[in-house]
Amino acid sequence: MKETIQLQNVHCDGCVHNVKNALEMIDGVRVAHVHKEDLVVDVLYEAPATPLEMREQLLLGGYLAEPPNKQ
Predict the structure, then answer these.
(1) How far apart are the C-alpha atoms of 53 and 56, rounded to whole Å?
(2) Buried/exposed code over 20-42 (b: 16+ C-beta within 10 A; e: otherwise)
(3) Whether residue 48 has a cis bond before it, omega within 30° of 0
(4) Helices (H), the chain
(5) Residues 4-61: pLDDT tens digits?
(6) Nearest to 7 by CA among 52, 66, 48
(7) Which of 3, 17, 1 is nearest to 52 (CA)?
(8) Distance from C-alpha of 67 to C-alpha of 4, rounded to nearest angstrom
């Protein structure tokens, strides 16, 4: 499965590294691709990982995370 998460507070390469590591430590997350310029992260995952768990993990790390804006 793939989830795209809208990010805030990602300003540098260190933030990109922290976001990637925080997500990839979740059981079931295969890979996280952070797009700093677009303030989004694309996550490839499988159960037991959930989008809610991913957003909560990012919030614990100090990064506001929301589902992508629907237009």
Answers:
(1) 5
(2) bebbeebeebeebebeeeebbbe
(3) yes
(4) 13-24, 51-60
(5) 999 998 999 999 999 999 999 999 999 999 999 999 999 999 999 999 999 999 999 9
(6) 66
(7) 3
(8) 7
Identify the three-state secondary structure at position 49.
coil
- Per-residue tokens: 20: 């990637």
- Would you call 62 helix, strand, or coil by DSSP? coil
Q: Are 35 and 42 in contact (CB under 8 A)?
A: yes
CA distance 56 to 60: 6
State both tokens at 1: 């499965």
- The whole-model pTM stands at 0.91
- Whether the CB-CB separation of 68 and 39 falls below 8 Å is answered with no
> Could you tell me how many residues make up the chain?
71
